[in-house]
Amino acid sequence: MRLFSPLPPLCALVVSACLVCPALAGEKDELALTLKQLEHIQASLERARIQANQDNPARFYFDYSRASREVEIIRQGIARYLEPSRAQPSVPVNVAEPLRGDYRREQR
Questions:
Q1: Model confidence pLDDT, tens digit, residues 56-83
Q2: How far apart, in Å, are the Cα atoms of 58 and each of 26, 38, 54?
Q3: Secondary structure class of 75 (helix, strand, coil)
Q4: CB-CB contact of 30 with 72 (8 Å)
Q5: Environment class of residue 74 by beta-carbon count within 10 Å: exposed (0-12), middle (13-18) or buried (19+)?
Q6: Does 17 have pLDDT greater than 90?
Q7: Are 63 and 103 in contact (CB under 8 A)?
Q8: pLDDT value at residue 10
Q9: Is-contact 48 64, C-beta < 8 A?
Q10: Domain parsing of the chain, residue ranges
Q11: Whose CA is closest to 62, among 40, 47, 77?
Q12: How far apart are CA 46 and CA 59, in angstroms?
């Protein structure tokens, strides 16, 4: 008399493997969409920078160059994740300082 059949655990393993593949594809699709959105953000930042009057003697202004650099760092990180380089060692992004998220600057 056989109490254990290997078929149910094997079926469960196959089903779970099939469920993981679409999840990974969904993640990559979402990250690819994020890359496109980051491109739009870069374009919006550039348009806003052009329209902004940085010669204005206002005490505070938006630091477009820092925001643009940080968006680019995020974009590069996602792109590296989506297309990992297997043949060559990964070259880390040269980040002099961590992302700050603070884009308000004071005139001196």
A1: 667 788 899 999 999 999 999 999 888 8
A2: 45, 29, 9
A3: helix
A4: no
A5: middle
A6: no
A7: yes
A8: 47
A9: yes
A10: 8-106
A11: 47
A12: 21
pLDDT: which is higher, 35 or 55: 35
Q: Residue for token digits 């078929």?
A: 7
> What are the phi and psi torsion angles at 104 (to 5°)?
-95, 125
Counting Cα atoms < 13 Å in the Cβ hemisphere of 33 gives: 6
- CB of 61 closer than 8 Å to CB of 107: yes
Average pLDDT score over residue span 16-27: 63
Token couple for 27: 């993640």
Query: Quick count: other Cβ atoms within 10 Å of Cβ 38?
Result: 17
pLDDT of residue 25: 75
Q: Quick check: 67 and 103 in contact, CB under 8 A?
A: yes
Q: Which amino acid is at 100?
A: R
User: What is residue 38's predicted lDDT score, i.e. its pLDDT?
Assistant: 96
**Which of 103, 28, 33 is CA-nearest to residue 70?**
103
